[in-house]
Amino acid sequence: MKILITGGAGYIGSHIVKELLEKKHQVFIYDNLVKGHRQAILNLRQSVLSQRQSVPLLIEGDLADKNKLNQVLKKYKPKVVIHLASFIEAGESMEKPEKYFQNNVLNGLNLLEAMVENKIKFVIFSSSAAVYGQPKKIPIEENHPLKPINIYGQTKYVFEEILRYFDKKYSLKYISLRYFNAAGADLSGEIGEDHRPETHLIPNVLKVALGQKKYFEIYGDNYSTKDGSCIRDFIHVTDLAHAHILALKSLIKKKQSKIYNLGSEKGFSVKEVLEKCILITKKIIPVRIAPRRVGDPPVLIASSAKIKKELGWQPKYSDLETIIKTAWNFHQKYPKGYR
User: Fold this and answer.
1) Per-domain residue ranges for the chain?
2) At how many degrees (to 10) do helices 320-333 and 201-209 cross?
3) Is pLDDT above 80 for 50?
4) Residue 264 has what pLDDT?
5) Which residue numbers are catalytic?
6) Residues sharing a CB contact under 8 Å with residue 287, sequence separation 6 or more, in sequence order
7) Which neighbouring-strand residues pair with 126?
8) CATH architecture of the region 2-185+234-263
9) How far apart are CA 114 and CA 71, in angstroms?
10) Is the backbone peptide bond immediately before 139 cis, with ω within 30 degrees of 0?
């Protein structure tokens, strides 16, 4: 099947590309490389060439470029689009809301319009647990009220609404996957997490272990949790990528729009993650307690019961030890990232 993946050179995107290639799909990556990495795709190409799979085609382009977007869809005629391209930093979204609405909403709308024009009927959307805001109950199910508390979450919520209306008007069928905390790296160590700047918990702990940062900051240690630090649900990026394969099969077969959570259904505190990182890296990791970040809920844990029941998804690598070991393997191989 021909599949176009926006943001396919990014962290999650590159892992999804690998899963797609292993399933013998023909993959076209559309990425402006502002956050993505050409080296991630080069690493994938070396891997798939050795296995005689089709090589992913990287098309450098921006979703703001309507003409190029139309040309690409017209030329390659994908059956499905997997849409990941977005800005993801919640803190920055509050400082630069226009940047997030432009990229995550308006540029995404360009994509949907181009899909309609080129008669492409299926899209899988990379959404976020940020659409829920402060949870009213744990674990969080898909029918939980949607009340984002930052602009990033708001953009994901708005785009889900746009998808709903495009389904009604144009019969564009979608599956929206609400990610919790993607973490870890491919078992090969050749692709992994390389954000600039890095805002995610595990890579920032590992940067201290590598001697690239003096200390790790814990944002608040007086929450109403077992050790005072926030509790989060971490899902291994390979498990997350595999969920996209299942979503793809379901979307094509059933032609029904759906929304699913993606999390491990287990919660680990920031301090528990830190201790596990110390055990795995065997490094001293100095810590500094910093003020709470505005809008950080004490606990975020997913219910993934719906996707398990309906699509048969089962995480294989989302235990905390595997997540950290694979991340550490990647960061040791690429201590300064891809570049």
Assistant:
1) 2-185+234-263
2) 50
3) no
4) 97
5) 152
6) 215, 216, 217, 218, 274
7) 177
8) 3-Layer(aba) Sandwich (3.40)
9) 9
10) yes
Q: Tokens 């997913």 identify what position?
A: 302
Supply φ then ψ for residue 59, to 5 degrees.
-110, 115
Confidence bin at 46 (pLDDT 50/70/90): confident
* Tokens representing residue 329 in the block: 């393997």
CA distances from 257 to 116, 150, 176, 261 (A): 16, 26, 8, 14
The closest of 45, 162, 157, 153 to 115, measured between CA atoms, is: 162
Q: Which two tokens stand for residue 279?
A: 């055990």
What's phi and psi for 48, nearest 5 deg? -75, -30
Place of tokens 């997997």: 82
pLDDT of the residue at 240: 98
